[in-house]
Amino acid sequence: MINTPLLIADFAYELPPGMIAQTPIEPRDHARMLVLERDGGALTHRHIYDLPEFLRPGDLLVLNDTRVLHARLIGHKESGGQAELLLLRRRQDGQWEALARGKKLTTGKRLLVAEDHGRQVWATITAALDGPRRLVHFDPPIDDRLDDLGHVPLPPYIHTPLADPERYQTVFSRHNGSAAAPTAGLHFTPDLLLALRDQGIGFAYVTLHVGLDTFKPVEAADPRRHPIHREWMHFSAETARAVNDTRLRGGRIIAAGTTSVRTLETAAKIALGLAPCDPAPAHLACGWQTTAAFTGETDLFILPGHHFRAVDAMLTNFHLPRSTLLMLVAAFAGKPHIDRAYAAAIAENYRFYSFGDAMLIL
User: In CATH, what class is 72-148?
Assistant: First the structure.
């Protein structure tokens, strides 16, 4: 970590509201792609379908295969009045942590959230957590019925309804658990993946379930005082072998999205014998084992000064000002390069955020 002052004000920028993408590009791989070369800072304007031109045989593309939960439930209180729950994560005891929207949603209140094959589904608030967070018990359990009973939640800055809920899922999504999509992965089509495979690009999959705190602006004046959100991840032994073997052969690790970056860099810390939140001095080298398998929560906060051990290039969308994700890409590319790239993207009328365009950082 760097010792020079780090101020949240340095990660603010002005974005005209009309540049926030409200609907996805069709087809997926026709989104624009701003290519940033870290060595020199050159910028090139391309499209996602041009990605094969920038990857080489022997590279490994790492994709997050999480799937967004249909986690938005609209219900009614027993006493009348509408209420809404946004499920965040299921606990081991079967209860759910959720964001609750509505009046007087205190402990003991019950909400009718669905009718399932003629049977009413009730949600009981069992505890009030911090702010609007609540602990909720469902009767009957809804774990395997969410796709039918719930709605896909969209980020708060998207106001246009989504015609096809699958458009907020990646084509390779497999494991339910996210409150938001890993948006860099939304750009891939089956044909693009096949083209990359035929070019000799390898694939590896990780799972990191994205939490809603990913959209939360950092409020502390010094970002290092921001309590980073925890997210559940799975980094398999198979993926660890693929990453380590690629590095031994001289190939590059290409992370699709900041979630893949956090997962890879967490696995690199595990390979060093460190916990995800432990500081890792730059002089510590991973050796032949770049990453190690890990399943659990990561609270890795990547800020400028972070020494990247497992990522050589990154595909990422354009991120919210004052966000932890903007700080991550600034850590990877260098803040001056990111400032120039964002200014260029705004000048060239790129689309921003979840359904927006992308940046390839090499």
Answer: mainly beta
